Amino acid sequence: QMNFTGDQVLRVLARDEKQLSLLRDLEGLKPQKVDFWRGPARPSLPVDMRVPFSELKDIKAYLESHGLSYSIMIKDIQVLLDEEREAMAKSRRLER
Amino acid sequence: STSSFSYSAYHNLEEIYSWTDNFVMEHSDIVSKIQIGNSFENRPILVLKFSTGGPRHPAIWIDTGIHAREWITHATGIWTANKIVSDYGKDPILTDILKAMDIFIELVTNPDGFAFTHSMNRLWRKNKSIRPGTFCIGVDLNRNWKSGFGGNGSNSKPCSETYHGPFPQSEPEVAAIVKFITAHGNFKALISIHSYSQMLMYPYGRSLEPVSNQRELYSLAKDAVKALFEVHRTEYIFGSISTTLYVASGITVDWAYDSGIKYAFSFELRDTGHYGFLLPATQIIPTAQETWMAIRTVMEHTLTHPY
């Protein structure tokens, strides 16, 4: 399994269409680096994006430099994945 | 047997297919399994048929898991299938529905992608098709349908997560459904289940143009969301896909609507932004319980509003 240690999901709130456009630009600037879980759609909807650990610094700097406010939705994806895998293994043992 | 199966846990493809076989065997009076095709990597594409027999009834289609990483949708589909057999004969509305209509559920719409989420990449979305000239793998199966194919909200670049594929219905997972539904010819409702962000939506995705039945679909979505809310007080928003979420072309429900299936809906299940695609298994049953009430509302309306 791919390891997602340190990868985060950032929730970005765009104020207007211009800020949404800056988020859309990220897909072109960082192809295959930023994985939009909820893509830039409209200002009323949050944008959630998974950012690999190696890109976190750059992406956060990009957001901050353009005045895009964000919060960390998931701090470390691998922690959740480990919990998920453990829960599956436990359930599998009980089912058997 | 299915008695040891935990509906409050996530399962891999082998476990789901094994559950399917046991489930069909245990409820052979009402459930059967149909293989409608094979995936790109040659896995069987299976559909559960719930029918009380008789001539070919009007039918309702439900699919889950077209996006591989949306595990809550497969889990909800399995719980729903079990709910149908548990409640048939007890719930008068469901019983009436099944006396007049058949229900088809495709639990794993993207089997290759789903298997890949268990073996290699938990966050994989697309299918696993490969083609010469690109090193990127996979097509977004929810951009590969004929309706509005290649338009706004889909991508022509194979590396994109919303890559629409080389031509409409190029992907065997989509082509199999199109062939099956078209050959059947009597589907009256289609419900395509996704996650996440808590929405219930109807066509169009491809444009802001309201569909001709917009008022009825809006009203039905409102009723369905209300029924859903009453279970665990989970709030959904609703409306057309393009006005509620985003413009997306080549999607399942647009194809369904354009193919004459008026009651075409797309769900985005829990949550609104804590876990996203990594929704803990403890939330499977509450999610499925509330989703069921919305599905039931759509199915009941389909029964009582024949067209």
Can you describe this structure in just a few lines?
Chain A is built from three helices and four strands; from the N terminus they run βαββαβα. Chain A is of the alpha+beta class and 96 residues long. Chain A has a four-stranded antiparallel beta sheet.
What do these coordinates show?
The complex is a heterodimer of chains A (96) and B (307). Chain A is built from 3 helices and 4 strands; from the N terminus they run βαββαβα. With 96 residues, chain A is an alpha+beta fold. Chain A has a 4-stranded antiparallel beta sheet with strand order 2-3-1-4. Chain A starts with 7 loop residues before the first strand and ends with a helix. The relative contact order of chain A is 0.25. The mean pLDDT of chain A is 93. With 307 residues, chain B is of the alpha/beta class. Chain B has 9 helices and 8 strands. Chain B has helices at residues 13-26, 71-87, 92-100, 111-119, 172-184, 214-232, 241-244, 252-258, 284-304, and strands spanning 31-38, 44-50, 59-64, 102-106, 187-195, 199-202, 237-240, 263-269. Chain B has an 8-stranded mixed beta sheet with strand order 1-2-4-3-5-8-6-7, sandwiched between helices. In chain B, α2 packs across α9 and α6 (214-232) runs antiparallel to α9. Chain B is globular and about 55 Å long. Chain B starts with 12 loop residues before the first helix and ends with a helix. The interface between A and B is medium-sized, with 33 and 28 residues.
